[in-house]
Amino acid sequence: MPGASVISETWLWAGWAAAAAPFAAFVLILFLLRRRPGAAAAVSLAAVATSMVFALCLLVCCVDMETPLRSVVTWMISGDTVISAGVHLDGLSLLMLAVVCGICLLVQVYSLGYMAGDPGFARYYAFMSLFAGAMIFLVLAPGLVQLYIFWELVGLSSYLLIGFWFEKFSASRAGKKAFVMTRLGDVAFLAGLLLLLVRGGVMDIAALSNGAAGLSSGMITVSAVLIFGGVIGKSAQFPLMTWLPDAMEGPTPVSALLHSATMVAAGVFLIARMFPFFSQSDAAMTFLLAVGTVSMLMSATMAMVSRDIKQVWAYSTISQLGFMLMALAAGGYFAGVFHLFTHAGFKALLFLCAGMLIHAFHSNDMFVIGQGGARGLKIPMLCMAVGAAALSGIWPFSGFASKEAVLATLVSLENPAWLIAGLAGVFLTAYYTFRLVFIIVFPAGRGQTRAEDPARGVAYAYGAMAWPVILLAFATLVLGFLAAPIRHWLAAGAGAHEAVHGPAWLAPLSLGLVFAAIAVAWVEFGRKNASQTGFVERVRVVAELFARRWYLDDIWGWAVSRLLDRGAAEACRQADNRVIDGFVHSLAGAAVASGRVLARGHRVMIQARLMIMFAVVFGLTCIMLIWG
Amino acid sequence: MIVPYTHVILLASLLFLTGMICTVLRRNLIMLLLGLEIMLNAAAVAFVGAGLHLQQIEGQAAALFILAVAAAEVAVGLALIVCIYRQTGTLDPECIESDVCELE
Amino acid sequence: MSVYSIFFYLIAALMILSTALAVTRKNMVHAVLFLVISFLASALLFFLLGAPLLGILEVVIYAGAIMVLFLFVVMMIRIRATEGSGFLLWHYLGAGGLSALYVAACLLLVRHSGPGTGAPMPAAVAAPADFGLYLFERHWLGIEIVSLLLLVALIGVLHLGLSPAGQRSGKGGPY
């Protein structure tokens, strides 16, 4: 049918265009518009809006197609291995594309207000465009090589954005930390890729998924675990999780973007994208389940004692990513991906609200914000409440639907420990979320609230920041009811038949846990004359453990200083001094000495030497032919 | 049907011998370099002949690389010769050698 | 004896003759011109042996570029035809011994050569497109290395060409 092929051709071009537009904006801003912030923002917004329009068109028109659309050009041929680049459109990538474009667009609009007057305004928008473009190409990648390239590009642009205020030492340090820690995981990822390439010779995700590579099961497990290394780095899972809270040094819209749809989502997206491949190995999936569970619980405990509003959301991001990985590892393709989408929405919402509060009160400390009179700012507070409810998983917000799907997947596992861990995570999530909300809404010195404080908050650029927040809050309300169509679209790609709703006791149980947690938070932080110290903070050792992030940073620091600085570097230095230098010195001495000897021979004429050389060569030929 | 392989090799070896004699017996650096070129060309002929004999394209690839290396070698060699001529005023290998000997 | 073999022997005779003439000329311009003839003949030989691309490259690079470069240098230096009047006797003796050794090596090689080398070879042609594809599929690294080599040669020649100018202005030295 020629008509259909023409139409699909059009859609593929739309996919290419959606991905290319932000890149074009990046180049344009970087080379032409660096001195003109207004034009730069306009170009960047136009590019992302273009991508958004294309993404929506694609989503509306081809999301329920039977087979994925692919447009692939051969990039490299080496021997039998063909490495291709292109776009791959199926349910997962289209939905993800829409989410990425939507959140990028909203964050960029929000940044108009948040970043107004910053000296690096144009640079900021250039990097934002690069970020968006890299993520879109990553989402659309049909092969692992393209995915890896844009994976690194996402890492690079997040490094640039986290260290955006590079004149601040802590910011540049946080950028470096993010870059190096994610790179640590990427090394494993690259090793996994090379292993697949050498053993299987196939880099195409579809081919890997349907087992065309002909890999043995042990090889699949090894390469899958190596690739998980990259996911652990990028999605900030245990033990590489500590870069994410430090990444708060960047501008708040960057954090919103980083935490919702782009950087950390890339890791989960990779798992979802290669889900059929990974499901071939039970051992790898169990490993992933354990990693997700550990990081989910650990970061939730860290969030319980933090005073920094952005850090709480950062820990909760790690925790929620752990949830997604648990769901995916337990075989819940739809649950994991759906939670990724809903989380992208409400986490962006929470960060943008936090950004408005920080912008208004010039502090990250939630106690300071609360006492400054944050309850006077209606829009951010209301939207934050919506986001918090979604994060805790209260009906009818989107978090409820996705979290229930995740728990339903965990129920289906044989070992009940995973489910218990998941329920504990739900409890902790609701606790720390509402701890934050209560601290801000009911500050301790509530009796003598200063009346002029809300007026102070009105002074900032409200419009550009308020609208994205309201839109996101609306999306958070609606998204939960779209579970069925999203499941249908995703199922075209994966063919997973899994439970969306668990047994009847599950939803009441989790809701009960949530409300119990809220009640605990209310007793400790919300009610009049509350002590405003959590039950964890009463036990000094545990509080210290949680506040210091389970000493993970110290362990890493110790490892780096001991193993790298003192161990490896010292060994290298010794080896350099003794072995290499000694070898070179003796070599030089030998060369000089033999040079003196040979110099005598050199005084013979050039052609005589030539003759000797020829004679040796032919003599050797004769000898080899006679006795060889 | 073309000639036997041995005839091609014979041709190449004769060319090589000519080049070798040229390098060894001419008292002129430029001629020495010419001799080198003749020898390289002989090797290329042998490679192409062997490629045809074994019905493999590999021989031609080797000949192509010989061509490229010869071009680089000639460029550097001639530049060196020009340099030497500017400094010593002669192209006779023996005189150059004796010059160097004097300088030491 | 097919027409191809007649061509081959004609070309071979031309090559050997012109090379021998080139090697023995006193005047270097003549020597270079004879060598051009020899290289043109070897280009014909490449055509005959089924390597048209190499034949063209031989004309372009060897007979064209390299020989013209020689001609330039010969013209530029304008050396008087005062080649040294020969060598000592032991040098000629050494050269004779070397040639004998070479012939011995060749004869040994012929004795050790594999089967089928005496039979006439079948004609075959590697089309330039096939050859190019093969080259870039199998030998892309070699191509890169050779191009790097050419670049290095270029830089080296530039350096060699520039250095005397600097020395002339300075106090001058052997190198």
Report on the architecture of this protein:
The complex is a heterotrimer of chains A (628), B (104) and C (175). The relative contact order of chain A is 0.08. By secondary structure, chain A is mainly α. Chain A has helices at residues 2-31, 37-62, 91-114, 121-140, 144-162, 169-199, 205-209, 217-234, 243-246, 252-260, 263-273, 275-278, 282-305, 309-329, 333-361, 366-371, 378-392, 398-411, 416-441, 453-457, 463-479, 483-494, 506-526, 535-538, 540-547, 552-602, 606-627, and strands at residues 69-78, 81-89. The N and C termini of chain A lie far apart (69 Å). Chain A has a two-stranded antiparallel ribbon with strand order 1-2. In chain A, strand 1 and strand 2 (81-89) form a beta hairpin. The model of chain A is unreliable at 447-459 (pLDDT under 50). Chain B has one domain (5-103): Helix Hairpins (Orthogonal Bundle), CATH 1.10.287.3510. Helix content of chain B is 85%, strand content 0%. Chain B has four helices and no strands. In chain B, helix 1 runs antiparallel to helix 2 (29-53) and helix 2 (29-53) packs antiparallel against helix 3 (58-88). The longest helix of chain B is centred in the C-terminal third of the chain and has 31 residues, at 58-88. Chain B is elongated and about 50 Å long. Chain C is an all-alpha fold. Among the domains of chain C are: 1-79, NADH-ubiquinone/plastoquinone oxidoreductase chain 6, subunit NuoJ (Four Helix Bundle (Hemerythrin (Met), subunit A), Up-down Bundle), CATH 1.20.120.1200; 139-175. Chain C is built from six helices and no strands. Chain C has helices spanning 3-24, 28-48, 52-77, 89-112, 128-138, 140-169. In chain C, helix 2 (28-48) packs antiparallel against helix 3. The model of chain C is unreliable at 168-175 (pLDDT under 50). The chains are: A mainly alpha (628), B mainly alpha (104), C mainly alpha (175). Chains in contact: A-B, A-C, B-C.
